[in-house]
Known about the structure:
With 325 residues, this protein is of the alpha/beta class. It has a domain of 209 residues: NAD(P)-binding Rossmann-like Domain (Rossmann fold, 3-Layer(aba) Sandwich), CATH 3.40.50.720. It is built from 10 helices and 15 strands. It has a 7-stranded parallel β-sheet with strand order 3-2-1-4-5-7-12, with helices on both faces. Strands 6-15 form a two-stranded parallel sheet. Helix 1 crosses helix 5. The longest helix has 22 residues. The radius of gyration is 19 Å and the shape is globular.
Amino acid sequence: MRAATSVLVTGTSGFLGGALGRHLRDLGYRVTGVSRRPARPGAVDHQVRHDLLMPLPHDLARHDVVVHAAALASPWASPAAYQGHIVQATRHVLDYAERTDAERFILISTTAVFYILGDQFGITEDTPFPATAVNGYAAAKREAETLVSRRRPESLIIRPRAIYGPGDTVLFPRVLRAARKGLLPRIVRPDGRAAMADLVYIGNLVHAIEAALRLGLTGTVNVTDACPQDTYALLCDVLARLGYRQPRFVLSLDAAMRLATAAEWLSAHCFGWREPPLTRFGVSAVAHAKTFDVRRMLGSLGPPPFTPDQGIAAFVAWQRAGAGP
Length: 325
């Protein structure tokens, strides 16, 4: 069954799409990748160079499963960029799946659809979304989810939380760039407490996606390592292992949010939406708790195969080998 299953994966030039393509191929699936840039090594049997701002080619063959993993994975961009690269791209991939009568459709979304700029504990798949999305990325992902749910109600929406591991271009690289420049602050909460947060190792995520595909899971499922971490302690540990200096200056949470708000305003009005060094989303990611009740994941897909310690060790080894950005 697996060897006979053809899968179209979007975003195979990126962190998640590339890792997913490799994982599926290792298990015997035939993988066609779609991305603007070349696929990551080993990710595809066949690659289609295509910008998802445009409809997929009409001569693109049918696939049993479509996994839409491509997205503008950035906490800061213009509203037009999010609309194009997330909402419009999802619409085009849905059009392809419907035109070719694909059996399964899987959207890789994000747990950011739930977020507020504050602590949140025990988030489940049924936790209501806040009235206003936390940023443009979350707003666009919420819109993409609505498109998929309306047009393919039998589809699966997977919401990973803070993906890390070898190949990461989004999460830790931002921290490491700031640390190299001496611009990484220690942000202190008013209550002085540590912020606990869930993450997901890339190996655990691709395992969960394939298991969900194989089992025919539908609906929505949040995916994490099922092991919340002390965010600041984790960052300091990674910095120490890689020989980076620890944060040298301290900011209160309130001051950090004010600086981020000013930086975002300047970016939007003066610098063409270039990502600022500090965003409110980024401040919140370090300073606020985000934990998840993942009983649905554990009950449907089983426990993650890798521990956070194994995941962090793999990321550090990859960075030390000079493969990181």
